[in-house]
């Protein structure tokens, strides 16, 4: 028996949708809810084939409802009805496994094809929302930093996750994942990343979605290399230049990571891997190197040099300098023969 649940806090809308679904004629049971919390309890206890839900509701909104359904790996297909023509809403819905996102007021011409589509799916397999979000974040960072080894590893992870799913599920997961990944890359605003056109490869991709995913990601990596003139360490060079230009500031790893468009955890790992130094070690070394150059200039005041390399306390500056060089600033000048 095919069941569908209608969830909307407005009774009149529930009545209208109920009538539409009776006219549609492919569900044996149609149940309406004006309370999304009560609806979720029933969905968990008796998962229906489909849910037709509003996105803006009190107590628990449609996004939260979708998240709960998705994280429990229920096989219920979700169609969202929304008054918001907003990509962010649609993006979040897709990440929660929503199959269709329709704008209110919806008509039979829009709703019936969406219902046909979700009922035709024979989806098995799912992965957790948190895993998918982390995978997309890591893949976007690996593309952006031209980290080929990490890209390969992430592709293997996704292949493993999709391996046991039905073909229809693989196609949908790849389609949604590529759309979100493209959006993440283009949101940076630095370059324009384009999807591959439908060509002779499209038919092969239809039967092998994982190959499609890999082909598209390889293409984006190549696009980025072309944009950067083949420079594989552009991000690192940009980060080092930014740190060097701001040595007189209390610059944090988080601030540099944000400037580079990376998460702090990944930037910390990436920085150490590429330089064999931590962020703090590099910044300290560069500050001391600059201080040594400035101290070699006669008549320059130590208090001015201290500020130039990012210190506002002479004792702190003196201790740090001596720890790194074996001399205090005054002793270093004397070593150079400068009085």
From TrEMBL:
Ranges for domain HTH araC/xylS-type: 237-335
Domain Response regulatory: 3-119
InterPro entries: CheY-like_superfamily, Homeodomain-like_sf, HTH_AraC, Sig_transdc_resp-reg_receiver, Tscrpt_reg_AraC-type_HTH
CDD domains per UniProt: REC_YesN-like
Modified residues (4-aspartylphosphate): 54
Pfam families: HTH_18, Response_reg
Biological processes annotated in GO: phosphorelay signal transduction system
Membrane-spanning ranges: none
Keywords of the record: DNA-binding, Phosphoprotein, Transcription, Transcription regulation
MF GO annotations: DNA-binding transcription factor activity; sequence-specific DNA binding
This protein's name: Response regulator
Organism, scientific name: Paenibacillus piri
